Amino acid sequence: MLFNSVQFLIFLPLVICFYFALPYRFRWILLLLSSYYFYMCWKPEYIILILGSSIVDYFASLKIASTNNQSTKKAFLLFSILVNLGVLFFFKYFNFFNQSINDAFNTFNVFYEIPIYEILLPVGISFYTFQTMSYTIDVYRGVTSVEKNFGRFALFVTFWPQLVAGPIERSNNLISQLRVNHDFNYERAASGLRLIAWGFFKKIVIADRLSIYVNEVFNHPGQYEGWPVILAAIFFAYQIYCDFSGYSDIAIGSARIMGYNLMENFRNPYHSLSVKEFWQRWHISLSTWFRDYLYIPLGGNKVVKWRWYYNLFLTFLISGLWHGANWTFVAWGALHGIFLVFSYVIKSKSEGLNDKITLRKFFKWLLTFILVVIAWVFFRANTIQDAFVILKSMLMIFRNNTIFISFTSDHLIIYETLISIGLIILLESIQIAGRYSRIEDLLVKKAFYLRWITYLVIVEVILWFGYYGSNAEFIYFQF
Amino acid sequence: MKIFILKIISLFLIVFGLNYVVIYNLTADKPIDEFYSKVSSPKQKYMILGTSRAAQALDPNIIFGNKGLNFAFTMANSPYGETYFHAIKNKLSDETDGYFIVEVSPLAISINESSDTLFPEKNYFLENLFSFSNQPNLAYLYLKFKKPLYSLFISKKGILNPQLNGRLIINKPAVSEVNPIIESKLKAYQKIFSKSSFSNLRFKQLVKTIILLKKHGEVIIVRLPVSKKMLELEQIFDPNFNDRMYNLSKEYEIDFKDYSELSGKLLTIDGNHLCKKAGDLISLKIRIDSKIDLE
After folding, report:
1. ipTM of the assembly?
2. Which of A182, A206, A298, B164 could disulfide-pair with A311, CB 3.0 to 4.6 Å?
3. Quick one: closest CA in B to A205, which residue?
4. In terms of DSSP bridges, do strands B46-49 and B69-70 run parallel, antiparallel, or are they unpaired?
């Protein structure tokens, strides 16, 4: 089920009303059934994969917790990881690797056709696989207690607000909350709704609007040159941010109404002064996952320098592959890896320089933003070749190209381009203001009628300036 | 929780009420896009059905005398099939003295074998639309209207000039038979023809549609003229098309008007769609030949 669908607008209030109407002991059952329904709205048969993953991890973690034998623990952990990664590999990467091997063979004039199967990627498979894997690993490490109630564990795996696109929750945070009875809280519910509205604004008004311009430019590499291409790359940076953080906001808001606190997933990523900082602010639940379950086990920075750089690079390379079975994602991850390694090499030479100087800060911000946007070009381009064509086109800024390209109905071209730029400025203004004091707090302190007018304006803006129809799906659903 | 729910419902009612009134006024008597008038007008007893050929050429005002609706869409949306049948059924009024022009062409009763699905129209908006005669049609605005709603405030001057009676006039110049526009269009159609074939399933749906329409009034099947080369392509694709239509008309005792003989004599904008003047002319001819007099 899509958050931005009529179906969800019926589903959400129904689940919330039933949730609070039911006695505490039955609530997890409602949440579990509604989560399965939420997922099955997409493709019912793929629920078997989630169920399978839940069963495997439930029993593996029980076994790990019940024995003191280290090798038995290890065997069950390995079994769980192999099953999870095996399923993920088959559904997400099998064709990709087959195709890549095919291509490699063809390069050396070896014509061996490896079969390519028509496999539909299960929505959210990367998210719930990582969530369940982290649980089993945490049980193995002894940092979380084992959940003996299968229903509650299955709910941890499938909890609908964050099932298909995160935030990727840790068992320590979510399972413990599933054990607590939550009463209805007016302020919390209102805060959740405000966050949902903000998420819808980011998704429907900003992301879906920007996607039209972005699609036009990125799907026709070489057709546009200079400013329209630069604008499209910047638009994509904001499209993916608003799309994904919008989803996270709706997820966190929905869970908050019912009393659950999901982890923060984004913290103004484009305000970062370095690529390292960007990764502390972007898709936090995934970057911390990779930190805790890959980077640190590889040795992190507690190794010799070259090995540390290797660990960093490898983590980002795999993070790129996590996003999708395409070389463009691998290139995106590799680029971030290179940027980070390079920034550490440079840092050791520039240490001691004063960061308080505003101009220096500005250039650091600008450089970070440019690097991130360049990497996004690889992320969005349909092929690696397309990405290079687009990057080359970006350099041709002295050609007289208007930014008002024909990306939507003729009579809306100028309005839509200007609205898109205006919305990005508005978004950043709100986010900058939010750094000094929470916008929500400012709103709560206002008089009743002012609050209501604000809510009304937000809803009206979503309705009148939003895009409905074909661009509806969230980008991160494909991961 | 009661107060919370009460407030949410109040906000919802205010938003819904306010927007309903504004959208109603912005869309009333205004063809906001190429299809809106078709799905927001009341149920009809005089209708023109078919694909884009009929949508662009046939004027209900001329044929029915300032009555009726052009309920033809495009080849993607309204080839004869379950989806279009369902839409027609929902658009029909209960009266039994209606008049219906059913435009037919070989492609409208064919299937594209290279397509992922046998009935690709199921991926388009008509399949999911549940209301065909509501003003404002909020379901249509949500499912099909791809522009943001604020665009309703901005007057539109473009190539597409949709009319309140459902006809879609395209502001493009008419072109002669020998023209690069026609050449490229024909190449595209040649590709489509090479991948398509006559469909018994679609033909059955056409029969089903005619049976339904006959319960509501008189039915005339019409084949419209195109460019000469386009007609040649159609004849190679389905040489028995006219025979099939004659047999159909005999079996169900309805008229079949074949205007394909006029192909090449009337101007088109792309080889496939008649220009406005030619459309007016053919509309008048249908009215005269079928002796339609509803005034």
Report:
1. 0.74
2. A298
3. B148
4. parallel
